Amino acid sequence: MEPTSPQRACFEAGIKFGSLYHQFAGTPISPDSADSLAHAMAESIENQPHCESVSVGVREEPLADAIADGGAAYTELTGRFLDVSMTIDYEGVVVETSMAMEDGYPLMQVDSVETE
Amino acid sequence: MEPTSPQRACFEAGIKFGSLYHQFAGTPISPDSADSLAHAMAESIENQPHCESVSVGVREEPLADAIADGGAAYTELTGRFLDVSMTIDYEGVVVETSMAMEDGYPLMQVDSVETE
Amino acid sequence: MEPTSPQRACFEAGIKFGSLYHQFAGTPISPDSADSLAHAMAESIENQPHCESVSVGVREEPLADAIADGGAAYTELTGRFLDVSMTIDYEGVVVETSMAMEDGYPLMQVDSVETE
Amino acid sequence: MEPTSPQRACFEAGIKFGSLYHQFAGTPISPDSADSLAHAMAESIENQPHCESVSVGVREEPLADAIADGGAAYTELTGRFLDVSMTIDYEGVVVETSMAMEDGYPLMQVDSVETE
Lengths: 116, 116, 116, 116
What we know:
homotetramer, 4-stranded antiparallel β-sheet, two-stranded antiparallel sheet, alpha+beta
């Protein structure tokens, strides 16, 4: 069957999450550089079509723990340092999505789908 | 509203496309190395949850043209060199997706959504 | 032969350039999001060992041209939009490096090597 | 001072290492997909100028351990799963480089510099 608009809207939302994650995973990060990276991640993904807003926060405690465990003053960005939420608006369908840790893995999920 | 299974399936499909694209965009590529990269792209994304199959082909003509235009024997991977199709199976919902060029941009799209 | 300190310093400088380029190539970019991305690129690479300072500027004209040529309000980051310079300090050897366009390709180069 | 040819050769070697690492860090990887990814990494970086050969191996034990620790059948590529060596030939200067684990971090290093 042809996809519906809400299904296409969820596809668009998924694209943005995969893009954000795999564009920036591996970036060197420290407590001092976390804010500029989070800001750039949000602004760059907001450029993508149908992407109304992106919010990226860095979770300070797991970042500090990872740096303490390693032998350097920085580490590489991975999902467990991130809180992400996004709003997608595709042809009047608004999709809210977020990324949260579950069982030690960053789980990307659709929180709600609303048709105006 | 809570998302339905087909909507979640489409979200999963989108994640895979965004991942594939932004993980590998920018990789040095030439006609000789195109096959190994296409193969690795498919196999790596197939690792992701609910991803049944990924097919990646490199479009030889635009790749050769881009190399002829530049001053080097290779170029950087971008969407216009790629043909991609994927099958996602999420809780019995099968989503077929593909990437094709439209107006000079690689457009990722949902081709069909089937509930078993 | 064993490498000398100036040779190791130049190796370190090269690592930073390759990292910066391939971490961020492909990132969605527009005139509005260019500054936050440039800032994050510099701060993230400065985390790496022996990296004293990184300066990243976005060249507005080629970015605007690329967007005008495409069908969207953004494009993907590539070397021809970037001006980069870096200072590496490795065991008292100071290496100055930069990236500039040559024959349509972004050329990374060592500008000077000074031993204190 | 102007850089010497051996110093430029080491800079070139560093670029290749930084490229390889940051292009592919974060790629989904499992024991089944490790070989195709290693092969593509080597072939893609060999495209870069002055890069004579690249060898990439995946260290099976740390990869298996990381997957066993996580909740999924794959993990994300990071330096501790990799053995890499490269030969750079820049204007008759041959540089041998490798990446090995030291203190839990992947350390990229110059092993030798020979002028023909």
